[in-house]
C-alpha cells in the first residue's frame, strides 16, 4: 500500500509529467483550447500509458538492453494505433479536431520515460498503477488548462462535448458569459503558455506553503550543563 500511495502522489502532484517534468508540452499547448479536446487527448494518453506500461513490464525480461528503446516505441505505437482507430470509429468529430496530435502520442516523452524508468524495472500491477497515475496527472492538467482557456476565450464550458460523449452531451454546454468576439490570446497557443505558467506558479506556491507548515522535529532534550572549574 505504501508503494501505491507513493505512485499516486508522484503521478498526480509531486512528479506530475506536465507541471514538474514538463513532458508532452506540444499536445498540451496545442489542443487545450476547450475542455472537450483536453479530455479527449487526456483519455487517449492515459489509455496508451497504462497499456504500454503493462506490456513493457511483461516483456522486460526478454528484451535485450541494446534494443529496448525501439521495442518500447513499437509497443507504444501499437497502442496509439488502437486508440486512433477507436476514436476514428466512435468519436470521428473529436478525431478530426485533434488531428495530428493523436499519432504524435507515440513521441510523447512522458510515455517513453515511464516505460524506460519504471515499467521496465517493476512488476505488472505496479507498472499499470504507475501508468494510471501519471496519465491521470497529465489529464488533470490538460482539463484544467482547457477549462481556463475556454472560459476566458469564449465564455463557455464543455462546448462541443457531444464530439466526445455523444448527442446527449449537448446539454452539458454552459455559457458563463457572452462575448461579441472571442478573446484570441486565450484560444491561441500563446494563451496556453501563459496558462501553463500560471498553473506551475500556483503549484510552487502551494508546495511552499505546505513546506512552511511542516513542524520541525523537536530538538533532543539536553540535560543540565555542569560547570567545571580548574584549581591551580
TrEMBL record:
Q: Which domain of life is it from?
A: Bacteria
In its keyword annotation, does this UniProt entry include Cell membrane?
yes
Q: Does the keyword Translocase apply?
A: yes
Give GO BP annotations, semicolon-separated.
electron transport chain
Main subcellular location: membrane
GO CC, alphabetical: endomembrane system; plasma membrane
Q: What is its EC number?
A: 7.-.-.-
**One Pfam family here:** Rnf-Nqr
Please name the InterPro entries in this protein's record.
NqrDE/RnfAE (IPR003667), RnfE (IPR010968)
**What residue ranges are annotated as transmembrane?**
12-32, 38-59, 71-87, 93-112, 124-148, 183-202
Where, per UniProt, does this protein localize? Cell inner membrane; Endomembrane system
How does the protein's chain sit in the membrane according to the entry?
Answer: Multi-pass membrane protein
Q: Which UniProt keywords apply?
A: Cell inner membrane, Cell membrane, Electron transport, Membrane, Translocase, Transmembrane, Transmembrane helix, Transport
Q: How does it assemble?
A: The complex is composed of six subunits: RnfA, RnfB, RnfC, RnfD, RnfE and RnfG.
Question: What function is annotated for this protein?
Answer: Part of a membrane-bound complex that couples electron transfer with translocation of ions across the membrane.
Q: Which family does it belong to?
A: Belongs to the NqrDE/RnfAE family.
> What is the protein name for this chain?
Ion-translocating oxidoreductase complex subunit E
- Species lineage, top-down? Bacteria, Pseudomonadati, Pseudomonadota, Gammaproteobacteria, Alteromonadales
What gene name is given for the protein in this entry? rnfE
Amino acid at each position: 500500500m505504501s508503494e501505491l500511495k507513493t505512485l499516486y502522489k508522484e503521478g498526480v502532484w509531486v512528479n506530475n509529467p506536465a507541471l514538474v517534468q514538463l513532458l508532452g508540452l506540444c499536445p498540451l499547448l496545442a489542443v487545450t483550447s476547450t475542455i472537450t479536446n483536453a479530455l479527449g487527448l487526456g483519455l487517449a494518453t492515459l489509455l496508451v500509458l497504462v497499456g504500454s506500461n503493462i506490456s513493457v513490464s511483461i516483456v522486460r525480461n526478454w528484451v535485450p538492453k541494446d534494443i529496448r528503446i525501439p521495442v518500447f516505441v513499437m509497443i507504444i505505437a501499437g497502442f496509439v494505433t488502437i486508440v486512433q482507430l477507436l476514436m476514428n470509429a466512435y468519436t470521428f468529430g473529436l478525431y478530426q479536431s485533434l488531428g495530428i496530435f493523436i499519432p504524435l502520442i507515440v513521441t510523447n516523452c512522458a510515455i517513453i520515460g515511464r516505460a524506460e524508468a519504471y515499467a521496465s524495472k517493476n512488476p505488472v500491477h505496479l507498472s499499470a498503477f504507475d501508468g494510471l497515475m501519471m496519465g491521470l496527472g497529465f489529464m488533470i492538467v490538460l482539463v484544467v488548462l482547457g477549462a481556463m482557456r475556454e472560459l476566458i476565450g469564449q465564455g463557455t464550458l464543455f462546448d462541443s462535448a457531444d464530439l466526445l460523449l455523444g448527442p446527449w452531451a449537448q446539454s452539458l454546454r454552459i455559457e458563463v458569459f457572452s462575448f461579441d468576439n472571442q478573446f484570441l490570446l486565450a484560444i491561441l497557443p500563446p494563451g496556453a503558455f501563459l496558462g501553463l505558467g500560471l498553473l506551475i506558479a500556483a503549484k510552487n506556491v502551494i508546495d511552499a506553503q505546505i513546506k512552511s507548515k511542516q513542524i520541525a522535529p523537536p530538538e533532543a532534550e539536553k540535560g543540565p550543563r555542569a560547570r567545571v572549574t580548574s584549581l591551580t
